[in-house]
Design goal:
heterodimer, A: 180 residues, mainly alpha, 2 domains, 0% strand, B: 283 residues, alpha/beta, Rossmann fold, seven-stranded mixed beta sheet, 13 helices, DUF8115 domain-containing protein (chain A), DUF8115 (chain A), AAA_dom (chain B), ParA family protein (chain B), DNA_Partitioning_ATPase (chain B)
């Protein structure tokens, strides 16, 4: 086998792997090592951002707790249910308006995908057994959303997200409905 | 060498007849003497391959893992190296199928399914949306096709943006209905916004009233509304609803290859021919 053949095989493995992963999990990475590494870095950065946001959020919550004279242990599920649904902040409304414009024009990518092996496997199994439509339709019915053109994995994730928001973060959900 | 004309069917909704439109306009353009390449980006179902009866052959290749490189490969970072190593003819030539009705076809591949997520990882907008365009510019243009026609997904995602970016001209098949009218309106606004944001000139080239039924008043009303709203883009001839379209697709052929002789089948054929002629004029 020549060097050229070897390199072609390597490229085939890299991109065929990506094809398979894309087709099978919708998590779709699996490009060459360099890209994988880059993605990991980006994910790492993203994860860092999320952690940072969580920390900030935690600080805010701590502040609120202090001002209310409550401690973390005093928060019970009942209290949360009784009035503890999250409320969109002014910053969220502003960010959402800006992001909506950017997503509409494609400056920001539009996508909801399951980048999680367990969830990917679950959705694939639903697809394999043909139950994806039934499950999708059930969630759609619960949330009263418009029927998607096709019940693929993305559609089910979108509906599930919509449902969860409508149940647990109704005010954020309202903001979404208003913008849609 | 004259520049290859490009167009894409697109609407952020499934079931409006995008694939049927690409298939029939593709054959009509071929009958008008153009060399046509159809590129299916509309997802893993590979409906255009089924529509032209090449699905069994293609599926066998996929099952035997003899399907590399394919249309999803051209979106990968490594595509340039792959084409360089294999040579253009092997890299691109193996993707192309002859349909038997005139146009050539690059079928959709299951790998397209997860591309949206991968493309999301590309931060820079131009790099995210120009991969298909680079492929068409560098590898398809030199093949001297007169017309490249993309069938895009029925939803807005990174793959459809790549298709729009490369095609620049959008053909929209719509049914006569209030929801479809709103969708078409939104699409026109979206195309305008995209054009302004990225400095690319996207235009709504043709809006084809599809699956019309002259027996209903509703259909007539919406037709008039579309003509008022989009006077410059509405296609000259409506495509009537015809069972023969579906029947011929199930047999793996277009109406042009079918011997269906019903009135609606005849009118649908004529409509596709007239609209193809008009599309050439407009582009």
């Amino acid at each position: 086998m020549t060097d050229n053949d070897e390199e072609i095989d390597e490229l085939r493995e890299q991109t065929r792997g990506a094809d398979r992963i894309s087709a099978d999990t919708n998590g779709g990475s699996g490009a060459d090592g360099g890209e994988e590494e880059k993605k990991e870095e980006e994910k790492g950065e993203d994860a860092g951002d999320v952690e940072e946001m969580k920390d900030e959020q935690g600080e805010e919550e701590d502040d609120e707790d202090t001002s209310d004279g409550k401690t973390e242990t005093e928060e019970t599920p009942d209290e949360t249910d009784a009035g503890g649904k999250p409320t969109p902040s002014d910053a969220f409304a502003e960010a959402f308006a800006e992001r909506s414009e950017r997503a509409k024009t494609g400056v920001d990518p539009r996508s909801v995908s399951a980048d999680d092996p367990g969830l990917s496997a679950f959705l694939l199994a639903l697809q394999d057994t043909g139950e994806i439509e039934e499950v999708g339709e059930a969630v759609r019915g619960a949330v009263g959303a418009q029927q998607p053109p096709e019940y693929d994995r993305d559609a089910v994730v979108r509906l599930a997200l919509t449902y969860a928001l409508s149940e647990e973060a109704p005010e954020h959900f309202d903001a979404l409905v208003e913008r849609s | 060498m004259s520049e290859t004309l490009r167009a894409a069917t697109f609407l952020d909704k499934g079931g409006t007849g995008k694939t049927t439109t690409v298939a029939h306009l593709g054959v009509a353009l071929d009958r008008l003497g153009r060399d046509v390449l159809l590129i299916d980006l509309a997802g893993k179902q590979a409906d255009l391959a089924k529509n032209f009866g090449v699905w069994d052959e293609y599926r066998a290749r996929i099952e035997e893992e003899d399907d590399w490189p394919n249309i999803s490969t051209v979106f990968r970072e490594q595509w340039g190296r792959i084409a360089g190593k294999l040579g253009d003819e092997e890299a691109v030539g193996n993707m192309i199928f002859e349909t038997g009705e005139g146009p050539d076809l690059i079928p959709a591949h299951p790998g397209l399914d997860g591309l949206d997520t991968e493309l999301n990882d590309i931060e820079e907008t131009e790099r995210r949306y120009s991969r298909l365009d680079s492929f068409v510019n560098e590898y398809i243009e030199p093949m001297d096709y007169d017309f490249v026609f993309f069938d895009l997904p029925g939803s807005t995602n990174n793959v459809s943006y790549n298709g729009l970016w490369s095609a620049r001209n959008v053909v929209v098949p719509v049914e006569a209905g209030p929801f479809e009218a709103r969708q078409a309106g939104r699409l026109r606004d979206d195309l305008r916004r995209i054009s302004e944001s990225f400095g690319v000139d996207l235009s709504l080239s043709m809006l084809i009233l599809n699956k019309t039924d002259s027996r209903t008043r509703l259909s007539e009303e919406f037709t008039e509304e579309y003509e008022d709203e989009y006077p410059e883009v509405v296609a000259p001839t409506q495509v009537p609803r015809s069972q023969a379209v579906r029947n011929s697709a199930n047999r793996g052929e277009t109406l042009f290859a079918s011997n269906a002789s019903t009135g609606t089948a005849q009118r649908a054929r004529e409509a596709f021919m007239e609209n193809a002629e008009e599309l050439l004029e407009r582009l």
